[in-house]
C-alpha cells in the first residue's frame, strides 16, 4: 500500500502560519509576532505533536523551512527537545526546491527534484508516513493540486494580522472534507484534519 502524505501546520485564527515557533524563526516581511504559538502550548497539543512525529518515517520540507530546521534541530540532540530532534535526525529529509540547497548541514537530506507528482509517488513507494511541517509556500502547491492525504491544521485563538498564509486571498480554490472529529486543547486551539475533495467548491442557494 502506498504511503501517506500528511501536512502539519499551526495557524492563527486569521490564517497566518508564519513563525509559530520563535521570534527569530522567520522575519520575512517584517513579521513581528514570531513565537505566537508558545503561550498556547499545552499537554493536548504536545501529545498530538508527539504522536505525529513518532509515526513519521520521512520528513518533506520546502527550501525555507529546511534552512530553518537545519540550522536548529541538528544542534538539539541533547537539548530540551531531544526526542523530536533525534527523530528528525533519524529519518530521511527530502527538500522540494528548484535551487541547490546546502544539504550537507543535516544528515540523510535529499533534493526532491524533477516532476513533483512523480517524485511524491516515489516517496509513497519508499515510506509509510511522510510529514510536511511548515513549508507554507510548498504546502500551497500540495493543497492546490490535492497532493496530500491529510491536512492537519492547529487553529489557535490569536489574531496577528499580516503574515504568510496557506490560503492567500487570490486562491486557488479548493474543496476539503473533514476527517474525523476535531480535537480541542485546554487553551482553545482546535486540531482540524482535512482531506482533498476537489479543486472547485460546490455552490448553491442557501435555504433553497
UniProtKB/TrEMBL annotation:
Pfam families: RibD_C
InterPro entries listed in its UniProt record: DHFR-like_dom_sf, RibDG_C
Domain Bacterial bifunctional deaminase-reductase C-terminal: residue ranges: 7-179
Superkingdom per UniProt: Bacteria
UniProt name for this protein: Dihydrofolate reductase family protein
Annotated organism of origin: Arthrobacter zhaoxinii
Amino acid at each position: 500500500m502506498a504511503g501517506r502524505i500528511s501536512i502539519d501546520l499551526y495557524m492563527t485564527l486569521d490564517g497566518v502560519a508564519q513563525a509559530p515557533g520563535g521570534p527569530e524563526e522567520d522575519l520575512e516581511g517584517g513579521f513581528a509576532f514570531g513565537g505566537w504559538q508558545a503561550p498556547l502550548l499545552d499537554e493536548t497539543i504536545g501529545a498530538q505533536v508527539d504522536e505525529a512525529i513518532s509515526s513519521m518515517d520521512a520528513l518533506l520540507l520546502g527550501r525555507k523551512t529546511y534552512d530553518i530546521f537545519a540550522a536548529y534541530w541538528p544542534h538539539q540532540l541533547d537539548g530540551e527537545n531531544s526526542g523530536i530532534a533525534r527523530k528528525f535526525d533519524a529519518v530521511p529529509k527530502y527538500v522540494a526546491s528548484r535551487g541547490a540547497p546546502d544539504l550537507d548541514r543535516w544528515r540523510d537530506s535529499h533534493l526532491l527534484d524533477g516532476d513533483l507528482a512523480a517524485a511524491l509517488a516515489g516517496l509513497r513507494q519508499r515510506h509509510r508516513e511522510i510529514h510536511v511541517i511548515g513549508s507554507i509556500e510548498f504546502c500551497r502547491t500540495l493543497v492546490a493540486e490535492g497532493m496530500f492525504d491529510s491536512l492537519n491544521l492547529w487553529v489557535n485563538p490569536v489574531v496577528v494580522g499580516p503574515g504568510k498564509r496557506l490560503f492567500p486571498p487570490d486562491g486557488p480554490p479548493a474543496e476539503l472534507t473533514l476527517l474525523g472529529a476535531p480535537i480541542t486543547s485546554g487553551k482553545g486551539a482546535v486540531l482540524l484534519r482535512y482531506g482533498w475533495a476537489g479543486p472547485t467548491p460546490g455552490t448553491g442557494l442557501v435555504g433553497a
